[in-house]
Specification:
It is built from 9 helices and 8 strands. By secondary structure, it is an alpha/beta fold. The chain has 2 domains: 61 residues, no CATH class; 138 residues, Metalloproteases ("zincins"), catalytic domain (Zincin-like, 2-Layer Sandwich).
């Protein structure tokens, strides 16, 4: 692991991982080399774990060819070159636009899941909207509008179900307090596992289409 040390006018030490091979350490200007080594030694395990996680996520994301293939609920359904006219001769930007449009034309698949789960759980919503947020899969506002990231379309259905149940439970609790999670568990007993699995798909949220 390569650690770049940046001495600057500051009071605290901040360590951040840039990628699986490099980290950045910001330290106060006059901190001794000994103290820096000590600090890095104490964070060695943390850095290794973080780097390992990045590697695992990279391996996981490699299994998906999201720029060329269309996935619906975890299954590869076809190649964009066969689904979108003239796809191969488009610029990267155009490709992205068309991919997004193609997925959005399947958004009703997500709406169907919400309707079904709302009926099953008795939890309500007013309206569903699509979002392309870079950090979240869904949200639920006090006016009962559920926003769902269209990239959920790429995820296995059981993970989509978890996200939808999560958002529907916000119709009763506008927070993540224990009572909220007790309600989530009623309809999705293994929600902790689902949350972990969902984390692995974080690369999709960040991916540009
Ligand atoms: Zn929530």
């Amino acid at each position: 692991m390569r650690v770049t040390i940046l001495r600057e006018k500051r009071k605290t030490i901040v360590l951040s991982l840039i990628d699986e091979n490099s980290a950045l350490l910001k330290v106060p200007k006059h901190l001794s080399d000994n103290k820096i080594s000590e600090f890095l030694e104490s964070k060695k395990r943390w850095l290794e774990n973080k780097a390992q996680k990045i590697n695992q996520d990279k391996e996981f994301s490699k299994a998906f060819d999201i720029k060329n293939c269309f996935y619906l609920f975890g299954k590869q359904e076809g190649k964009f070159e066969d689904l979108i006219l003239g796809f191969n001769s488009m610029s990267e930007k155009e490709k992205g636009l068309h991919i997004r449009k193609y997925y959005l034309s399947h958004f009703s698949n997500l709406e169907d899941i919400v309707l079904k789960l709302s009926e099953k759980t008795g939890l309500v919503f007013e309206k569903i909207k699509s979002t392309a947020a870079k950090t979240i899969w869904g949200s639920y506002s006090s006016d009962r509008i559920m926003k769902l990231n269209w990239k959920l379309l790429l995820l296995p259905k059981e993970l989509v179900n978890y996200v939808v149940i999560h958002e529907l439970c916000h119709s009763k609790h506008m927070n993540h307090k224990p009572q909220f999670w007790r309600d989530v568990a009623k309809f999705c007993p293994d929600f902790k596992l689902k949350r972990k699995q969902l984390n692995q798909y974080g690369f999709l949220l960040k991916a540009c289409f």
